[in-house]
Amino acid sequence: MHRLDRLTALLTLLQSKPVITAQELADRFAVSLRTIYRDVRALEAAGVPVGAEAGKGYYLPEGYRLPPVMFTPDEAGALLLGAKLVEQWSDQSVGPAFQSALSKIRAVLRPGDKARLAELDDRVAVFRPASSGGARAKKSEFPDHFLTTLQQALSQHRVVELDYFSSYNQTWTRRTVEPIGLLYYGSGWHLIAHCRLRQAQRDFRVDRMKNLAVLAAQYTPVAPFNPQEYMTPPSCVTEKTEEVAVLFKGNTARFTAEQRYLWGFTHEVKIPEGTRLHFETPFLPGMARWLLPFGNRIRVESPDRLLHLLQDLAREVQHHYLPEEVVAPVEE
Length: 332
Prior knowledge:
Keywords: DNA-binding, Transcription, Transcription regulation. By secondary structure, the protein is of the alpha+beta class. The chain has four domains: about 5-60, Arc Repressor Mutant, subunit A; about 75-130; about 145-230, SH3 type barrels; about 240-320, Alpha-Beta Plaits (2-Layer Sandwich), CATH 3.30.70. About 35% of the residues lie in helices and about 25% in strands. The chain has eleven helices and eleven strands. It has helices spanning about 5-15, 20-30, 35-45, 75-90, 95-105, 110-125, 145-155, 225-230, 260, 285-290, 305-320, and strands at about 50-55, 55-60, 160-165, 170-185, 190-195, 200-205, 210-220, 240-250, 265-270, 275-280, 300. A five-stranded antiparallel beta sheet has the order 6-5-4-3-7, covered by helices on one side. A four-stranded antiparallel beta sheet has the order 9-10-8-11. A two-stranded antiparallel sheet has the order 1-2. Helix 2 packs across helix 3, helix 4 (about 75-90) packs antiparallel against helix 5 (about 95-105) and helix 4 (about 75-90) packs parallel to helix 6 (about 110-125). The protein is elongated and about 90 Å long. About 15% of the residues are buried.
């Protein structure tokens, strides 16, 4: 990267964060600390009021702003893709804000780049499977506009009240929670929060909430939240679970896709016969129904209870579709 490009990018980073350390900047641009010190002095010489606080890092004074930065065609295209993904994989509260931001970006593009972006807009699309809420499936009992509100509560450390639907026992409960993090996994957004009703950390699917309200009361976060550590089992497990091992023969495992995560997938082991998937699941009957369509392409290795559940389901299906055969008497 040329120095002028690095100085421009450095200034953009300074505008994007309240404080940033010299080491972060050095790592970001793959240069030495001495180079960063020289670059900061160059910005100061150009009239940029870069502040420095010992032990914390560099910052720009409150209220200091530069005119809009010009975007390259590749950057604008990447943001367009982001907008398409946000539209389908967030909720109704986030989409309009992202589109508004994209409109501001379009406004500073060169005329030729605007035309190219408009053509891309017509030719690029993102579709969600119907099973995961594609085409913004309407569920009147589950409003679809809480992500922005939850982000605000999370950043301001505000307590949240909500009605939550448990698919396990088909009941609604009123919860008061202290937000810890927002994660997307298993085809849905999840709020990780301390639940005052259960007096423990819980994982709430955002698409099972309604009547959500952010309270004036604030809370003090107990510790920093690391999403990567949370998603490393068994940290993300909040219910009693059972360990499961299932052999998927040949290349059958590839057909499990994202669905494996809904059943507590932890890891896989490749063996000559296929792929052994390991799970920690809280609901074996549901998992048995998921596995049944794989037929003889899987083998349950543990636990025995899961195998017995599959056998019961197989007999139920056989009884429904294959009535008992009437054996004709043998003529002598």
